[in-house]
């Protein structure tokens, strides 16, 4: 069984999706003053990126954490994890 699963955005309650996207904006260091709508503007943009499959929502079954990631972040994370597993570094 895989440790990670992709969660379709449509399966999340709206308030949960909003919270995940707001956490992503904050974690990525986006300037919420550079759009006329602040955080709301970034969340709307991120929803569009989810629809275009430019972002994914991934759930870590082991840590029980859910994160929004760019495809580049996901690939990098997945590749790093695979490397660690091959070397036996993960417990």
From TrEMBL:
<dbReference type="Pfam" id="PF06794">
    <property type="entry name" value="UPF0270"/>
</dbReference>
<dbReference type="InterPro" id="IPR010648">
    <property type="entry name" value="UPF0270"/>
</dbReference>
<dbReference type="InterPro" id="IPR036685">
    <property type="entry name" value="YehU-like_sf"/>
</dbReference>
<comment type="similarity">
    <text>Belongs to the UPF0270 family.</text>
</comment>
<protein>
    <submittedName>
        <fullName>YheU family protein</fullName>
    </submittedName>
</protein>
